[in-house]
Design a protein that fits this description.
This protein is an alpha/beta fold and 324 residues long. It folds into 2 domains: 142 residues, Rossmann fold (3-Layer(aba) Sandwich), CATH 3.40.50; 123 residues, Rossmann fold. The protein has a 6-stranded mixed β-sheet with strand order 10-11-9-8-12-13, with helices on both faces. Helix 6 runs antiparallel to helix 7 and helix 7 packs parallel to helix 12. The longest helix is centred in the first third of the chain and has 19 residues. It comes from Pseudonocardia kunmingensis.
Length: 324
């Protein structure tokens, strides 16, 4: 056979084989493209932005005030900064309202309240969460150091309701459904309450120097409003003042001026029934308010000091108990 004819024959045979492999001459199907979903999500927070893994597995709370919010969303918290034991915290330094969940989940107590950077690094987190305010705040310098360990996100809880912060954290960490479920659970329980709304309401703490009255911008004030209560207006007149610094969540009221609360029902944060009875003796001007005479003083317990999903549900239970 002529050399040129042989070459053409080989080409025809190879071509036929290729067409057969492709399915009778039809164009080849394109290769399946791999999942192009990003491995991280960009989270904007109080101190900047961070690239957070889509599927977080090892979260460390650098601020004890954030831990309850994370546990309430079923975020995999492996370790947390802690508070001094006693008062609002158990022997581990866990806040009382979420201590059982932390113990059951094997959460490691790292000390605190300031972020223990070396201890956090030893936990090999894939995300670090911190607070922008308070004694356990993550400032710019600490944030820079934590960000070298793992993506770090910092949130300001001072003027957010517990469910607003839950929604924000849920969106940042891929737990949106858990945040929605927490809010639904609260709303269902709150709907069972039948509160007297004929009086204004005030959420407050009592100190030896006076009262700290929570404003409409505080988590405690927002919780009362979510129950259909109208907050008493203590104003900023004589004896009242801002809560200190740039805080907008608290107004301070001197004991001699507690009359500015008028006939408001009082919801006392970080107090039990025994504390209320002590106030009758220790602060006679406060005890002279109509709320004391008419039994409209409700202790919200130590867990109400920092509201998260656990604390919010506990507050509802205490409010319900006060109606019995």
């Amino acid at each position: 056979m002529h050399q040129g004819s042989a070459a053409r024959l080989v080409a025809l045979v190879v071509g036929a084989l290729l067409l057969a492999a492709c399915g009778g001459g039809q164009p080849a199907e394109p290769a399946t493209t791999p999942d192009t979903a990003p491995a991280t999500r960009t989270v904007t927070h109080a101190l900047g932005t961070a690239e957070v893994p889509q599927d977080v597995q090892r979260v460390v709370s650098a601020s004890v005030t954030m831990t309850g919010h994370l546990l309430g969303l079923d975020v995999p918290v492996i370790a947390t900064a802690t508070a001094p034991p006693g008062g609002v915290a158990d022997e581990n330094g866990f806040f009382l309202q979420w201590a059982p969940a932390a113990v059951a989940g094997g959460v490691v107590a790292l000390g605190g309240p300031q972020a223990p950077i070396e201890a956090i690094a030893e936990q090999r987190p894939d995300v670090i969460v911190g607070s922008a305010v308070g004694l356990d705040a993550v400032d710019g310098e600490v944030y820079s150091r934590l960000s070298q360990i793992a993506p770090t996100v910092v949130f300001d809880h001072s003027t957010a309701s517990w469910d607003e912060l839950a929604a924000e954290l849920g969106a940042a960490l891929g737990h949106e459904q858990q945040a929605a479920a927490a809010e639904s659970e609260f709303d269902a329980r709150a709907a069972e309450l039948q509160l007297d709304t004929t009086h204004p309401a005030a959420a407050l703490t009592v100190t030896s120097e006076g009262l700290n009255v929570f404003t409409a911008e505080s988590a405690q004030g927002k919780l009362l409003q979510s129950l259909g209560l109208q907050l008493a207006d203590v104003g900023t007149g004589a004896g009242a003042g801002a809560g200190g610094g740039d805080r907008r969540d608290v107004v301070r009221l001197a004991h001699e001026n507690v009359g500015q609360l008028g006939d408001a029902s009082l919801y006392v944060v970080n107090a039990d029934r025994s504390d209320i009875e002590e106030y009758r003796d220790a602060h006679p001007v406060l005890a002279g308010l109509p709320a004391f005479a008419e039994g409209r003083v409700v202790p919200l317990g130590p867990e109400s000091f920092r509201l998260d999903r656990f604390a919010a549900m506990s507050v509802l239970d205490r409010v319900a108990a006060a109606q019995d």
